[in-house]
Amino acid sequence: MHLLMAAILASSLIVQSAYAQPPSAGHAKTTSDSSCENDPSYTALQKPFRIYGDTWYVGPRGLGVFLITAPTGDVLIDSGVPSHASLIENNIRDLGINLRDIKWILNSHAHCDHAGGIAQLVHDTGAQVIANAADTPLLERGGHDDPQYGDRFLFPSVHVTRIVTDGESLRLGDLVLTAHSTPGHTKGNTTWTWTSCEDKRCLHMIDVGSLSAPGYKVIDNPKYPDILKDYEHSFVLVAALPCDIPLAPHPEMVNFWGRVDKHEQGDADALIDPVGCRTYAKAARESFETQLTKQRADRASSK
User: Fold this and answer.
1) Distance from C-alpha of 243 to C-alpha of 7, rounded to nearest angstrom
2) Is 70 exceeded by the pLDDT of residue 225?
3) Among 213, 183, 256, 244, residue whose Cα is nearest residue 10
4) Which listed residue (114, 149, 231, 280) is catalytic?
5) Is the pLDDT of residue 33 over 80?
6) pLDDT tens digit string along 242-268?
7) Catalytic-role residue among 109, 135, 149, 273
8) Tell me, what's the pLDDT at 302?
9) Spatial separation of the C-alpha atoms in residues 78 and 73, rounded to whole Å
10) What is the pLDDT of residues 140-177, one digit of tens each?
11) Where is 80: in which H helix or E strand?
12) Could you give the CA distance from residue 87 to residue 43 in angstroms, rounded to a whole number?
């Protein structure tokens, strides 16, 4: 049995989170740790807390890392940056949970700020790694030869134990998580969904895959020729998914901390935002289309 401690929703501690992207190329290095840590929110301490039912926030301030607990074993989504897996592990222990209770580690996408700590967490938990088929090669290469970033954002390589495809559901006792392929940000970018309940009220939880294209070459990219089709698919899919409590690899994608603040102020349902996924997908599409228009104009002017 887990000795789950009652947790109080934590107030804002320090810096504001960064948008859903790896560190800027201007600060990038080829070493795994430093390339991910130039945003201080990625390593900022954040007290762990219950989001709803069996779903917990266990990441640093600027990176969404989520723990889902179940009698048959726990599931962790994402891992933060390479050298700060201990921050996540300490948060899990603070909840009274044994690291060895974690059976699966899921990944949203193969970037260093979300997959960087997986190797250490696997070592310390003994958990199996589950990831999208299209991101598995990039995870196992430790970020080498990324279609957008090349070798700029590296992390310890990850052995993927189980590969999932679009729409596949995973069962761990009564806990069911479904993988939705939302490619573009990476080829195997994944939105994870599950249900969490309090008393008899069950809500759709969704960890929205990043839909941004930070500094991406979205046209004439030989390493990702289908990128436009993939982004279009992902914008539509995210907007259509059942979405009661939207979560994300970068919390500000879905105004998570704003909703947390309102919850702390006494609004019991503040974390619920049924339009949050549609709002994010719409904003991401608009940003992407602006970027696409500019790149097409630049290409035309260069001819």
Assistant:
1) 24
2) yes
3) 256
4) 114
5) no
6) 999 999 999 999 999 999 999 999 999
7) 109
8) 84
9) 17
10) 999 999 999 999 999 999 999 999 999 999 999 999 99
11) none
12) 8
In contact, 113 and 88? CB cutoff 8 Å: no
**Any residues with CB less than 8 A from the CB of 221 and at least 6 apart, and which?**
147, 148, 227
pLDDT digit string (tens) for 173-208? 999 999 999 999 999 999 999 999 999 999 999 999
CA–CA gap between residue 22 and residue 35 (Å, rounded): 8
109 included as an active-site residue: yes
Given 185, 230, 244, 280, which residue is catalytic?
185
Q: Which of 159, 188, 154, 160 is CA-nearest to residue 83?
A: 154
Q: What is the pLDDT of residues 56-73, one digit of tens each?
A: 999 999 999 999 999 999
Residues 173/95, Cβ–Cβ less than 8 Å? no
Checking if the pLDDT of 5 tops 70, the result is no
Residue 102 · residue 131 · CB < 8 Å:
no
3-class secondary-structure state, position 237: helix
Q: What single-letter amino acid sits at 298?
A: D
Take residue 95 and report the two structure tokens written for it.
């909840």
More confident residue, 123 or 8: 123
Give Cβ neighbours of residue 293 (< 8 Å, ≥ 6 apart): none
114 tagged catalytic:
yes
- The residue annotated as part of the active site, out of 149, 216, 224, 231, is 216
Residue 250: active-site member: yes
- Which helix (H) or strand (E) segment holds residue 128: the answer is strand 128-132
Is residue 38 over pLDDT 90? no
Q: Which residue type occupies 164? A: V
Could you confirm whether 216 is annotated as catalytic? yes
Predicted TM-score of the model (pTM):
0.89
Distance from C-alpha of 53 to C-alpha of 259, rounded to nearest angstrom? 17
Position of tokens 């934590």?
Answer: 10
Cα separation, 58 vs 76, whole angstroms: 9
The one catalytic residue in 111, 149, 207, 230 is 111
Alpha-carbon distance 53 to 185, whole Å?
Answer: 30
